[in-house]
Amino acid sequence: MITLRLALRNVLGAGIRTWLNVISLSLAFVAIIFLQGLYNGMSRQVETASMAAQYAGGHYWQANYDPYDPLTLEDAHAALPAALNGQISRKRAVPILVRPATIYPNGRFQNVLLKGIPPNQSVLTIPTHAISTDEAAIPALIGQRMARSAGLKKGDYVTARWRDAGGTFDADEILIVEVMQTDVSGIDNGQMWIPLEKLRSMTAMPGEATLVVLEKGSTFKEPVAGWTHRDLEFLLKDLRALFLSKSIGGSIFYIVLLLLAMLAIFNTQVLAVFRRRKEMGTLMALGMTRGNVIGMFTLEGATYALLAAAAAAVYGLPLLLYMAANGFGLPEATDNFGLAIGNRIFPTYSAGLVLGTTLLVLLVTTVVSYLPTRKIAKLKPTDALRGNLT
Amino acid sequence: MIDKENHMIKTMDVGKVYPMGPTTLVALDEVNLEFHRGEFAGLIGPSGSGKTTLLNILGSLDTPSSGSAVVLGRRIETLSHKQASKLRNRHIGFIFQTFNLLPVYTVFENVEFPLLLQDMAASQRRKWVMDALEWVGLADRAASKPAELSGGQSQRVAIARAVVKKPELVLADEPTANLDAENSHHIMRTMVQLNAELKTSFIFATHDEKVMQYLKREITLNDGRVARDRIIRGDNP
């Protein structure tokens, strides 16, 4: 206890040297928490948006369906079994039929997925009410990325060609009735949403679907023959793996920041051990053991971390809370990254993040502070009093 | 076994050698001395005669290479680092040539330091510190930092720090070397007074004439050996 008190007095008495260390360390503190909070916020936003518009409470996939293998799509359709129809009729699930097609916008051709969905569904946040129309043409809802890549806008007609259940090619005009603004590229890129019954009739697949999306919070996961249940763990696995890898990448940045701060502390400690040899000798002459002296110097270093945490709380807390409330604006180009980030990221900071960062910095600072003091263990009081390092 | 009450310090054939490359430097050679409680003695002699080395051994800051030194009933050469630290903290005060005050602490905190290591209660600590500052006439400078003090004042703070714990023994290494004549006399008179009032033993390492005139016992060292040991004043115990 006494060693801690003495360390604190020494650190506070060292003036500008202390505050330079404290400021640099507190910057590392705030940057680490901010960056990690940014990743957490981004991850949570993407998950929330993806769940609302794409995954809801989990999926049932027709046995042949594999979203990563376009060759399986031709066969990925089947009549809905009674168990899933029961969920659909109770509005606890929505069926989606996915068919590959080609469109010919502005003289080009582009492969797309036609996705049939009931216009009156409420399981997903896709604005499917827009395709609830009596128009003779096939109404389609597309996302802004799809509109941009195909050069389409609301009111445009585009020719589409597809195969029906028998493998026969068919073609017709599709009317773009709405371009939706969405952060979720998984419902946007290369996709056209059209009424389910329309697509079923176009492809001669009455009563069929490729996947069924369960409502949010659904507990239905009974085995259904010919269909595979995909829970949120499975559906979000790739997304979470992506964020983990991004988070690890981000960690390198804050490790560099932390190393710079640690370098400053290490430098201060090395200098202190060198400059304060006489003081060490005096402390030993007054009755401090070498262990006490080592402890005091180490604690002086650790005190920087404590003061930095306090300083970070003073200026960092309002800043971090402001960022959490108002978000962090992203440039337009971020939209092309393929993640449902939106225009702003709202960082989220958990108690674990703040506490973990504080403990990590405290631990690393203590270790870094201790290293230069090992010399003291071999120091003879008489040499120290003469200003020598043994 | 040494009589702790009467013989505060006894050295028996104490030697100290330092390795100097292929040869060795003999700093002390078969030093046999006894000191009693309340002594006001000086180790005198030219530079390199072994004064500081002997003082360091008596203060348990160093150990003899040969022989034995018993200080306050403890054999210095057998003490662990912790035991030596405890001996210094509880029973021995040090005064250095360059004062060695801790620059970030105030005068009060510097004097308080040895008591902090003893885990003394705050109220008692305060009283003892103020008493010590009264003895050296610096009670009004308790809040000052060492940088704000003159050399004489700094050494008086160092004396207060050495005597605040009421030690049996104070070891002073060239305490007046950095002071002018007036301050030197002032410092010495302070220590004579403390020796008389507190019955604290003082042993000096010095070659300063101004110090010598206050000594009651003078031990002359030459090339690490005791050349002369004489009582100057009859009131030396």
How would you describe this structure to a colleague?
The complex is a heterodimer of chains A (390) and B (237). With 390 residues, chain A is of the alpha+beta class. Chain A folds into two domains: 2-52 and 239-386, no CATH class; 59-230, no CATH class. Chain A is built from eleven helices and 13 strands. Chain A has helices at residues 2-13, 16-55, 82-89, 144-150, 196-203, 232-235, 237-275, 277-285, 290-326, 351-373, 381-386; strands at residues 59-62, 78-79, 93-104, 110-117, 138-143, 157-163, 169-180, 191-195, 208-209, 211-214, 227-230, 328-329, 344-345. In chain A, strands 1, 3, 4, 5, 6, 7, 8, 10 and 11 form a nine-stranded mixed β-sheet that branches. In chain A, strands 2-9 form a two-stranded antiparallel sheet. In chain A, helix 2 (16-55) crosses helix 9 (290-326) and helix 7 (237-275) packs antiparallel against helix 9. The mean pLDDT of chain A is 87. Chain B has one domain (37-52, 81-231): P-loop containing nucleotide triphosphate hydrolases (Rossmann fold, 3-Layer(aba) Sandwich). Chain B has helices spanning 51-58, 81-91, 107-117, 122-135, 151-163, 181-198, 209-212, and strands at residues 7-20, 23-36, 40-44, 66-71, 74-75, 92-95, 169-173, 201-206, 217-222, 225-231. In chain B, the strands form two sheets. A six-stranded mixed β-sheet of chain B has the order 6-7-8-3-9-10, with helices on both faces. In chain B, strands 2-1-4-5 form a four-stranded antiparallel β-sheet, with helices on one face. In chain B, helix 4 crosses helix 5. The mean pLDDT of chain B is 91. Chain A binds chain B through residues 2, 5-6, 9-10, 12-14, 278-279, 281-292, 380-382, 385, and chain B through 56, 59, 61-62, 81-82, 85-86, 88-90, 94, 96, 98, 100, 102-105, 109, 113-114, 116-119, 161.
